[in-house]
Design a protein that fits this description.
- It is built from 13 helices and four strands.
- The chain is mainly alpha-helical.
- The strands form two sheets. Strands 1-2 form a two-stranded antiparallel ribbon. A two-stranded antiparallel sheet has the order 3-4.
- The longest helix is centred in the C-terminal third of the chain and has 33 residues, at about 270-300.
């Protein structure tokens, strides 16, 4: 039996307290945002928001604690916002599946020693990880290919991450070659080996990479900002949020607040509700993949 000394137990409590403090600091902005989204617009403007949302009573001109879903109702009633949400969800699924396919097709052949030009191919792939043409050349390329204001511009350019490919390739290297050799003796071709052996054994790392690709696509808005200018039907949710917060567009409701008595702006409570509306779906995905997350990253990084 391993009995810790009093000093060791005190050290454990200190580490646990520090970890809890850091976690609290990380989730504090989300809690504050949630409180704003559940408060009335007037209480947000008057800085009356706390962890217990405060509602303003217009008849008696008083504040009292409670919750209101008024801001969420405005968000759900906005057709453009819900359309962006559904489009982003579909786009995330398509990009995740397509990116996983491209990552597998890139990583698997590099596990064969007899592949001609293997060293050169690896060098070229790694080179693209550190060096790129830049924003302006990429924009000119997308325009030349006719991908501007095209949904494919949100899928094709970022369909493969070199970093994720290296993780998957390292995982493939960790699979015993005896399994592949036994399958080849039985007459299996490389494609059969991939489908019947490598992919089933790679569930943890594939789930991890799927999480990476899904979160990256859900949170991405830079490519849409550059390439989607005249096609509002292809605007993803993050770009919609950026437009909302920067007052480039607003939720299609008639409620606006007067700030400093002269300047109208979209309610901050509605903005907070919109951000929560766009953030929660991707957070829900993580618990389903969490059990694969640590195993996928660590196993894929054993060899390189």
């Amino acid at each position: 039996m391993n009995i810790k000394s009093k000093e060791a137990r005190v050290g454990d409590f200190i580490v646990m307290a520090v970890c809890l403090f850091v976690i609290l600091l990380c989730i504090m902005p989300m809690i504050n945002l949630l409180a704003q989204s559940l408060s009335s617009s007037q209480s947000v403007i008057n800085n009356k928001v706390s962890f217990i949302p405060i509602i303003h009573n217009h008849e008696s001109n008083t504040f009292h604690t409670g919750m209101t879903l008024e801001s969420y109702r405005y968000v759900f009633l906005d057709a453009s916002f819900t359309r962006s949400m559904w489009w982003t969800a579909i786009l995330t699924v398509i990009c995740t599946l397509f990116s996983l396919l491209m990552t597998i097709l890139c990583a698997y052949p590099l596990t064969y020693d007899w592949l001609r030009g293997k060293t050169f191919i690896n060098t070229v792939i790694i080179f693209t990880m550190y060096f790129s043409a830049g924003t302006i050349p990429n924009y000119i390329l997308m325009r030349s290919l006719g991908l501007l204001n095209n949904p494919l511009v949100l899928i094709i350019p970022n369909c493969l991450s070199v970093f994720n490919m290296i993780i998957l390739r390292s995982f493939f290297f960790g699979i015993p070659e005896s399994l592949r050799e036994s399958a080849e003796i039985d007459g299996a071709n490389p494609f059969t080996v991939l489908v019947r052996i490598y992919i089933p054994l790679s569930a943890p790392v594939l789930a991890t990479l799927a999480l990476f690709y899904a979160v990256g696509r859900w949170n991405g808005f830079g490519d849409a900002l550059l390439y989607i200018n005249a096609a509002p039907q292809w605007v993803p949710i993050q770009l919609k949020l950026w437009q909302l917060i920067n007052n480039m567009t607003s939720i299609d409701v008639s409620t606006v607040e007067m700030v400093a008595g002269t300047v109208p702006r979209t309610s901050d409570a509605i903005k907070a509700a919109a951000i929560m509306f766009a953030t929660v779906p991707i957070l829900v995905v993580y618990p389903w993949l969490q059990r694969y997350f640590i195993a996928g990253v660590t196993i894929g990084a054993v060899k390189g």
